[in-house]
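Ticket 4471: requesting a sanity check on a complex prediction with magnesium ion. Repro inputs:
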Amino acid sequence: MRLEGVELRWLELPLRQPFRTSMGLELRRWILLLRVVTPDAEGWGECVALPDPGYSAEYLDGAADVIRRFLLPALAAHGDPEPADIAPVLARVRGHRMAKATVEMALLDAWLRTRNRSCATYLGGTRSYVAAGVSVGIMDTIPALLDAVAGYVDEGYQRIKLKIEPGWDVEPVLAVRERFGDDIVLQVDANAAYTLADADRLAVLDEFGLTMLEQPFAEEEIRDHAVLARRLSTPICLDESIVSARAATEAIDLGACAVVNIKPGRVGGLLESLRVHDVCVRAGIPAWCGGMIETGLGQAANLAVAALPGCTLPADIAPSSRYFDRDITEPIRMNAGYIAVPDGPGLGLTPLPEALAEATTGTEWIPLR
Ligand code: OSB
Ligand code: MG
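Returned structure tokens:
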């Protein structure tokens, strides 16, 4: 695939509701897009890094810097990469997986468009609809949380995920179970806010029939997750810790998780996501596709992952209206709790010029020849 150049594009999109997690409060989403231009097609990538290094070590301006200074020159030096070449060419840069995933997503989109193939079929997706889950931020009060959850249950989401942190864990879960009963599928996500010293507190969550407890401890604390997993009946899911297929294999082998959250950005791209998926299938571990409050572009890529046969649990994929007044693509829609996997060429969605222009705060063109 011949690369003419790429455009970096910065966006700012107000969030419809503030989103608070143990990492902080988000009122708007700053986004970096990468548009790659080839003679035959353009492709789009979305960087999922947040502005601050609170979820993982990566952050938005750092990702832009790595893309500009290290990833693009490596690609340009290689010449005409095919999808399978991208990760090996970028491997001389350590880490920076979200930055690498942005580049791979754009190149893969262009490559697939040239071949008139969809990303979901290319990866091996077997689902045309994906069960949608909602990730509910930390609220100021329990009544505010119950109101929010009531709205999501009415909208038809297939499962509810509550963000938790010390001081906001057992009480909100108890309140949601009391109000909505045992029929709703409920899980919690701590974004690494606890340590093994909190094991007694976390064990109380076993009373509530949660589908999973996601990432209680820090990214590198695999052994502590394994210790907790032996104490709790609630399945442990890892998000931040699963940075690669190799990391997934080791976490599963060590008994640190019984469920895996797959995020293309966190593992360095869609092809590595497929490898993580395959590790889970071989181990008999259910997987699901996580989210990072993406635009329709990022959600289109996530939908391709969520369509894989081993992604058997509801995804953190929600309609555009959950996040933004106006998405930059045709809006992602939910129908009775399900979202259609795009089946058009490439990602199947492209930015709408007017919506894109409205959200854009800056652009930079980088020629590659
Ligand atoms: O841990 O899954 C996470 C958002 C930003 C960073 C980390 C996470 C999240 C979410 C949002 O939970 C899920 C979504 O995109 O709806
Ligand atoms: Mg998570």
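Notes from triage: The first helix runs from residue 60 to 78. Leaving this open until the requester confirms.
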